[in-house]
Amino acid sequence: MSLVRSADTLALTNLTDQALRVRAVEAAATYDLELLVQMTMAYMLAGSRKGARTSPKTLEAYSLAVRDFVPWAQAQGVQLLRPGRRDGGRYVAQLQTRPSQGRGRTGTLSASTVAQYVAGARALYRALRWAGATEAQPFEDAHVPPDPTPGIVKNPPYMHEIDEVLVQCEPRLAALLLLCAHAGLRISEALNVTVGDLRGSQLAVHGKGGKIRQVPLGKRVRAALAGLTPVRSDGALFDWTYHQAKYQMSLAFRAAGQRHAWRGFHAARKHSGTRLYRATKDFTRVGLFLGHSSVDTTRRYVALEENDVQSEVEDF
């Protein structure tokens, strides 16, 4: 991730309008992949709606997307500054028919992966317009069909697995799992928790876009955190990277006989959303707990029981 905030990337934001335009035109004309990635990152940090608060995860995803689109455009003879009106649709079509390269996966790229690549390519063109290099919008009319399978079905919440895996976790790993599964934190939020964030029975969580929310902690989470000592002088309770935490948790799932159930940390966050909704029947309260800005997002985190309204319609 050093690229997205490198000195070269940030230097682009300080160029004059004319100098920025020249750099962008040259990069597009020569298919200079590294400079086009930097140009996109510079736009995201200085010209997009979220600006410098754009999440590292988004920056990384867009960087990968630009690295996919630009070589395709060059191979297809697409002039980046003067693309054909159908070129955006052509790129979408080849993404939808491209074989998946994921380990153990078959078939074509998932709808979510296609959408991610197209979002990054669109960001590239916003960056080129921001730099004054073109007014082209080749993806304006390109349609990216949504995934017909809801995310809650493709990646449902862990339920009974949580308690089974906790038995196999050492105390710090158990606390991390509880922060995601019982306190509803994103893994990035959980890994950044410090002693100073603990305020009695609540936790100050630093979420997306620099937002801070107060999350109530249940007794199991409080007890797990109370047993930890800081791992750094700043009071951090975890010193794992995301990939290190993912590896440690996958080992715990395997030890619990749940090797094939491991679906990443997001399914643990859905566990908390599902349990809280079943207790409250209130998407708004669940959304506030999870730190969502939209209830529509919250609905994708809750596994509803089949025939949940059977008793309500019984006497219709």
UniProtKB/TrEMBL annotation:
Q: What is this protein called?
A: Tyrosine-type recombinase/integrase
Q: A Gene Ontology molecular-function term?
A: DNA binding
Which SUPFAM superfamilies does this entry report, sorted A to Z?
Answer: DNA breaking-rejoining enzymes
GO biological process terms, alphabetically, are:
DNA integration; DNA recombination
Which species does the entry assign this protein to?
Deinococcus arboris
- Kindly name one Pfam family recorded for this protein: Phage_int_SAM_1
User: Record's Gene3D superfamilies?
Assistant: 1.10.150.130, Intergrase catalytic core
Q: According to the lineage, what is the superkingdom?
A: Bacteria
Entry's PANTHER family? PHAGE INTEGRASE-RELATED (PTHR30349), TYROSINE RECOMBINASE XERC (PTHR30349:SF81)
The UniProt record lists the Tyr recombinase domain at: 152-315
Give the UniProt keywords, A-Z. Answer: DNA integration, DNA recombination, DNA-binding
